[in-house]
Amino acid sequence: MVDLHLSTFILLSLFPLTLFYFFFKSILLIKSTQNYGPKSYPFIGCLPSILPNRHRFVQWTADVVNNTPTKTAIIHLPFGRVRVVTANPTVVRHILKTSFHLYPKGEGVRNTLFDLLGDGIINIDGDGWKFQRQVSIHEFNAKSLRNFVEHVVTTELNDRLLPILATASATKTTVLDFQDILQRFAFDNICKIAFGYDPACLTPSMPDAIFATAFDDAVMISTGRIRGNLPLIWKFKRLFSIGSEKQLSEAVSIVREFAKKLIKEKLAELEKNSSLGSVDLLSRFLSSGHSDERFIIDIIISFILAGRDTTSAALTWFFWLLHDHPRTESEIMKEIVSKSESTVYDEVKDMVYTHAALCESMRLYPPVAMDAKQAANDDVLPDNTLVKKGYPVSYHIYAMGRSEELWGADWAEFRPERWLERDETGRWVFKPRDGYEYPVFQAGPRVCLGKEMAFLQMKRVVAGILRRFKVVPAFDEGVQPVYVAYFTAVMEGGFPVRIEERGEIE
């Protein structure tokens, strides 16, 4: 009993000292950092500004950074924690290229996302990242890309997606969740090309996607960990397996069981026919000598996240914007009808105006709103922002796409022509922007390996759908879609649409 009273006395004595430590630390941090950002208070930081904006965190932080003189803001979090957010291209170049070694993913984000992503390429640094990237890069050569467009995407488009749209157009009253359809489409495609497996998620019966639901739940809850102002809360819930952390554990278990099934089937396939060793990404990793099941599962989850959610998110917002911009749709239609109906690989690559329209859509609604690194050592950013070792540093892709300094006074307009110029014959020529002004696909050593594959898939889908159909949003009157960002962005509540036959004359 004496020992118990002594322990209680010690804990009660330490508690005010702990509060004083965090209070004093937060005061020092506020005084030692420039005051570009929301008003901050000792101990609670910017919490009075964060809480009213927690449901529009991306939009709020975009406003914050775009209204600072340097396009870099310091956000003070409770208990003396600090987050640096930037929309400055010079700073983005610094953290993604010039000082790449100083800004890894970092242990903070890595540990937060480890339950879902493990040691997958999205969540790892150093030699493990280099190995996965070296093996994966073979999947994105010209031969693989041609096969992807002409066989994988085209088959999924003609045999599954277009028949579903045709059925919906025949009734004239059917409302589809186009976001869900595009996610199913992309999921089938990434599984086929990366794992040699067809989950048949996009079929007329629209089967219950238990895996997809679990995956979405895991992504949402994992993102909530990052956004949470008090990490101790989710760690406490995980310790006792309660609330959202119990739900996360159950969702991750379903996701990992799916990945285990893929590995088991692929190993059996390779055992029967060893010549399949270089056909798909999963076969390459299994044939590389890595037999650790958890490691291979982590790789599978990362590629599903990258391959399913990003392209479906980009296409969802693209089709919504297109309906409100008939002139842009008309220009895309001119480009589509100038191609053969098969729209093979070379012709898809040559769809310049459609490419520009997709870039413009992703400028306003990027599939990934923000990406975070962590300072490995003290540093001074090019705009003179002081960064201490361990600080999370995020570059704000959504904010950069809405910066008047980068895109002009008409930044809010959906205008694909800002990406184009005419050559001497009067044809459109694509005019790319600097990757550090438009880091939708990251930039520097970690630039997205699947960038070309994503564009080819999206252009093939756009051509295939618009040649036959109009996609008409079916929101209730006065309702505007809401951009919500987890790992990737989604249209909150889905994208309700009606499908209309386009007609031969158009």
How does this model look, in words?
The protein is of the alpha+beta class and 506 residues long. It contains 19 helices and 13 strands. The strands form five sheets. It has a four-stranded mixed sheet with strand order 1-2-7-4. Strands 3-13-10 form a three-stranded antiparallel sheet. Strands 5-6 form a two-stranded antiparallel ribbon. Strand 11 and strand 12 form a beta hairpin. Helix 13 crosses helix 19 and helix 14 packs antiparallel against helix 16. The termini are far apart. The N terminus is likely disordered.
Give the overall pLDDT as a whole number. Answer: 88
Morphology: globular
User: What is the CA-based Rg, rounded?
Assistant: 24 Å
The strand count comes to 13
Major pleated sheet: 4 strands, mixed
**In which order are the strands of the major sheet placed?**
1-2-7-4
How much of the sequence lies in strands comes to 5-15%
Poorly predicted parts: 1-15, 17-32
End-to-end Cα distance, whole Å, is: 87 Å
Helix count equals 19
Helix-strand makeup class? alpha+beta
Helical content stands at 40-55%
Name its key features.
3-stranded antiparallel beta sheet; single chain
Summarize the structure.
The protein is α+β, with helices and mostly antiparallel strands and 506 residues long. It contains 19 helices and 13 strands.
Task: Give the helix/strand layout.
Layout: H1 2-32, H2 47-50, H3 57-66, E1 72-76, E2 82-86, H4 89-98, H5 106-117, H6 126-136, H7 142-171, E3 176-177, H8 178-195, H9 210-227, H10 231-239, H11 243-272, H12 281-286, H13 293-323, H14 326-337, H15 345-349, H16 352-364, E4 370-374, E5 379-380, E6 386-387, E7 392-396, H17 397-400, H18 404-407, E8 420-422, E9 428-430, H19 451-466, E10 469-473, E11 483-485, E12 489-491, E13 496-501
Parallel strand pairs: 2-7
Antiparallel strand pairs: 1-2, 3-13, 4-7, 5-6, 8-9, 10-13, 11-12
